[in-house]
Structures are given as C-alpha cells and as structure tokens.
Amino acid sequence: MIKMKKLTFEELMRECYNNFEEGEIEKMANQTIEVINVKNEQQIKSNGDIIKAFENNETLFKINWTSLKTITNEKIKIINNALVIMIGICEYVDF
Hints:
There is one protein chain. By secondary structure, this protein is α+β, with helices and mostly antiparallel strands. It has four helices and four strands, in the order H-H-E-E-H-E-H-E. It has helices at residues 9-18, 22-27, 47-55, 68-72, and strands at residues 31-37, 43-44, 60-67, 84-88. The chain has a four-stranded antiparallel sheet with strand order 2-1-3-4. The chain starts with 8 loop residues before the first helix and ends in a 7-residue tail after the last strand.
C-alpha cells in the first residue's frame, strides 16, 4: 500500500519507485512503463486521469514494464518474467 501526498501522476510514479530495491530499478532502465487502471484497463497518462479515477472510486492500479526491444520489433514477442505491480490506495489525505 502506498500513501500519496499529492494526487498527481508524478507522485504516483515516485511512490511506486520507492517500493523497489536499487537493483530492480537499474534493470528497468531499458524498459517502458505503463500505469493501468485495473477497473477499466485504461492507461493513466496525466494528473487528470488520476483525479478522475479517484472521483470514480477506482483506486487500484497495475504497473507494466515492457522491454524496449519488444516495442521496436514488428514481431510480437512473449516476455518471460514480466513485472506487474498492483497498487491499492485506500486513503488519500489532501494537505
């Protein structure tokens, strides 16, 4: 569980990265990241998307990391040992 100080995309990403160990973050340097709203499978791209999710009481997100090699190749590749994180935010305090 994470607690957000501000209801922004930047704060969500910062709190996600704070939960990883140093070696894991280094492995992710050559990957892209997507934050997905679990309820409607929509990608979170902005502060507005996060605010909208909270207004609709949709506070469960998953984070997908995808290898850049997979994106640049035209063939579809299966990524073994993909990292997916589910985050539930049960409380938000606006300071």
